[in-house]
Design brief:
This protein is α/β, with parallel strands linked by helices and about 750 residues long. It has 31 helices and ten strands. The strands form three sheets. It has a six-stranded mixed β-sheet with strand order 5-6-4-2-7-8, with helices on both faces. Strands 1-3 form a two-stranded antiparallel sheet. The chain has a two-stranded antiparallel sheet with strand order 9-10. Helix 10 (about 180-210) packs parallel to helix 15 (about 260-290). It is elongated, with a radius of gyration of 31 Å. The protein starts with 8 loop residues before the first helix and ends with a helix. Keywords: Cell membrane, Ion transport, Membrane, Potassium, Potassium transport, Symport, Transmembrane, Transmembrane helix, Transport.
């Protein structure tokens, strides 16, 4: 987007930061190898093993069967991971952030119903993110039993495996607060060694049988898939083939952590190593499919068997590290997904930490803790990887289908390439639908756990989004200038006690001339709050790490200030200290009278008075007239909000003087019986009743099916506000833009 003549320097800097992304560098390529590819990089350990087991074992693996299975794996990696995600999906980024919610933010104006596939896909991916670390770490620890000295210690005692797995998961989640850059630098060299090991160990066997390269022909894969003489599992074999690409969605979600340039640079190396290893396993199977001694080995794994015995100890230990690292891709991807969901009002606001100098690398403590507890719960429930693997991959097929639907909309409506969009939808939709139906066989063998987790996450999103739509039908932004006289009179009215020298309200909107009705209601109606000065503070996080800026609109007064505080993403958001500086500046510039203290422990008295912070929360009163279902939605939303913490903690106000005030959710009041007074005549009085008129209602947000369903309520509330409120004729029901630059960019 070209710079406007009215652009401020801060806006230009923010736009440049967004367009630049994380640059290509050798260090970030190493981080990418450690953060992004863990899940997809460990697939050679179990994909061919699962296919061979499902087809009847080593004896059934003829040359045509092996070449067909390898062809399906190679072309699944090529079509799903390379073409769909690396070449297509990564072009659809939202300010360099990837993932299904970043994609939805690009297409949400195209159709109201698109929010549903975004919510379904996001919930399924987050559920898979809880399951994957449990599966991969447990599998890795069980693999240590193949080493003699480890087996001598562990034996068949699964309790030891569970205990070690839980300890490693605790260590992994505790490390997250260090940031993906730090973790990537630690994991990067290990994963680089891992991929080199995959390539070299496979290449040795490919050189011994170059005929295995015939698997590059896609016709062999199609023949194997539909020929019952070759493939005993039929189309259901795709449920096992799909294991080779389960990390593709995490790759897209992790794009914001490492930058697309570093993924483009590293993926060819990763893919080459994976394919060479698969070909090497295939060559070994072809050479040994008639080996009677190997046929007798239970749970035969060609990944380990093709290695010389003296290398297996090293391979098992290295694969254990790689499997642990595989969990990292899903964990960091989950942070990105939740961050995007919060921006879209699909999840509650949560504290976000930025452990590095790059904004894309984030850490969300609450998400980390929930995933931590969830992973440990899955380990304790299933105990063995055999049971966990039954659920593995089912949810991710749902996410891939939803991503395909959103990418079709992006290509057709945003990029206006219908000629590309329709073949894309038909081709990838058909492939992924086959993967989905073949994975459904896992449902009763453990897949139900993933489905239950995804359903729970979807319910949270649904409740939060619908609840937000209900609230926004109530939200009215009123012009501040209509209330200046009342606020001036109140600040000088000695009939009311002085609540504070400086009374501060935290607001969500970034406008400079309007205020939420709830704020004005709290000051003027709920209990008149007298203060020498009123501040309405909006905090915005910039794309630069160390921004310290603020803008003030004083409405040509010395008692009322709308403040926008712009802080870099690495800056501690302790707003009380910044407000003290702002008031000091206002006093120094003669924009507000000095607030001299008569009493103080300090020798030099401050010219800045005391502060009180008022935090408002909406509640449903017993009189609120909301349909039963919507009332339950709002109650559940407010419960979720309480569990996610308080702005007092986010903004460092724990030790400040705070007023927690609850304001009613403005809605139609239930019809009440009106009492009629009768004169006392020395006998027991009686009463009669009439019905009171209806009261209040709400706002506007036409972006999805939730807000659209409440259009009638918003229109009625607009009429009510116009007639009943001071300044109601100029009230705004449209939610105010939080980041104007983001909004402009997203409309392009």
């Amino acid at each position: 987007m070209a710079a406007s003549i009215n652009d401020t320097p801060a806006t230009v800097r923010a736009r440049r930061a967004k367009s630049a992304g994380i640059p290509l560098s050798a260090g970030m390529i190493l981080v990418t190898l450690g953060v992004v590819y863990g899940d997809i990089g460990t697939s050679p350990m179990y994909t061919l093993k699962a296919i061979m087991s499902g087809n009847g074992g080593l004896a059934t693996m003829s040359t045509d069967v092996v070449l067909g299975a390898l062809s399906l794996i190679i072309w699944t990696l090529t079509l799903i991971t390379t073409v769909k995600y690396v070449l297509v999906a990564m072009k659809a980024d939202n300010h360099n952030e990837g993932g299904i919610f970043a994609l939805y933010s690009l297409v949400r104006r195209c159709a109201k119903w698109l929010i549903i596939p975004a919510m379904v896909g996001g919930a399924a991916l987050l559920a898979d993110g809880i399951l994957t670390p449990a599966v991969t770490v447990t599998t890795a620890i069980e693999g240590l039993r193949t080493v003699d000295f480890c087996y001598a210690i562990m034996g068949d005692n699964q309790g030891i495996v569970v205990a070690i797995t839980l300890a490693i998961l605790c260590m992994l989640f505790l490390m997250q607060k260090a940031g993906t850059s730090t973790i990537g630098k630690a994991f990067g060299p290990i994963m680089t060694l891992w991929f080199a090991f995959l390539g070299v160990s496979g290449l040795v066997h490919v050189i011994g049988n170059v005929g295995v390269l015939r698997a590059l022909n896609p016709v062999r894969g199609l023949t194997f898939l539909f020929d019952g003489n070759l493939n005993a599992a039929g189309v259901m074999v795709l449920g096992n083939v799909f294991l080779c690409t389960t990390g593709a969605e995490a790759l897209y979600s992790d794009m914001g952590h490492v930058g697309k340039a570093n993924i483009y640079a590293s993926w060819p190396f990763v893919k080459a190593c994976l394919i060479i290893n698969y070909l090497g396993q295939g060559a070994w199977i072809i050479a040994n499919n008639a080996n009677a001694s190997l046929m007798a080995v239970p749970d035969l794994n060609p990944f380990y068997q093709m290695l010389p015995e003296q290398l297996r100890v090293f391979a098992v230990i290295l694969s254990a590290f790689a499997a642990i690292i595989a969990s990292q891709a899903l964990i960091t991807g989950s942070y990105s997904i939740v961050s995007e969901a919060v921006r879209l009002d699909l999840m509650p606001h949560m504290r976000v930490n930025y452990p590095s100098e790059t904004k894309g690398q984030i850490y969300i403590p609450m998400v980390n803790n929930i995933m931590w507890v969830g992973c440990m719960g899955v380990v304790l429930l299933f105990r063995s990887s055999e049971h966990m693997e039954a659920a593995y991959g089912l949810a991710i097929t749902v996410t891939m289908l939803m991503t395909t639907l959103l990418l079709f909309t992006y290509l057709s409506k945003v990029r206006h390439k219908m000629g590309l969009a329709i073949p894309f939808l038909v081709f990838f939709g058909a492939i992924e639908a086959m993967f989905f139906f073949s994975s459904l066989t896992k449902f009763f063998h453990g897949g139900y756990v993933t489905v239950l987790l995804a359903t729970a996450i979807f319910v949270v999103m649904y409740v939060w989004r619908r609840g937000t739509a209900i609230e926004r039908t109530q939200t009215v932004y009123l012009p501040v200038d209509k209330y200046l006289d009342q606020l001036f009179d109140l600040s000088h009215d000695e009939d009311y006690p002085l609540l504070a020298d400086n009374l501060v309200f935290l607001t969500n909107d970034s406008s400079f001339d309007k205020l939420d009705r709830d704020v004005l209601y709290s000051i003027l109606d709920k209990r008149p709050k007298r203060a020498k000065a009123y501040y309405f503070l909006n905090v915005q996080v910039t794309d630069e790490p160390y921004t310290h800026e603020y803008i003030v609109n004083n409405f040509d007064t010395d008692f009322l200030f709308k403040v926008q505080l712009r802080l870099g993403f690495r800056v501690n958001q302790r707003v009380n200290t910044y407000l003290y500086q702002i008031v000091s500046d206002l006093v120094a510039n003669n924009q507000i009278a000095a607030q001299n203290h008569r009493y103080s422990i300090y020798r030099e008295h401050s010219n800045v008075g005391d502060f009180r912070f008022c935090l408002l929360r909406k509640v449903i009163s017993p009189e609120t007239d909301i349909p039963g279902f919507d009332a339950r939605v709002m109650e559940l939303k407010y419960l979720i909000r309480r569990l996610c913490g308080s702005p007092a903690k986010w903004y460092g106000l724990e030790s400040s003087n705070i007023i927690f005030e609850y304001v009613p959710l403005f809605s139609k009041a239930k019809q009440q019986h009106k009492l009629k007074r009768i004169e006392f005549a020395g006998s027991k009085p009686s009463a009669a009743a009439t019905h009171a008129p209806d009261a209040f209602d709400e706002d506007d947000e036409p972006e999805d099916i939730f807000s659209s369903a409440m259009k009638g309520e918003r229109e009625k509330n607009l009429a009510d506000a116009t007639s009943a409120l001071v300044g109601g004729d100029t009230a705004s029901f449209k939610p105010l833009v939080i980041d104007e630059d983001d909004e402009e960019d997203s409309e392009e």
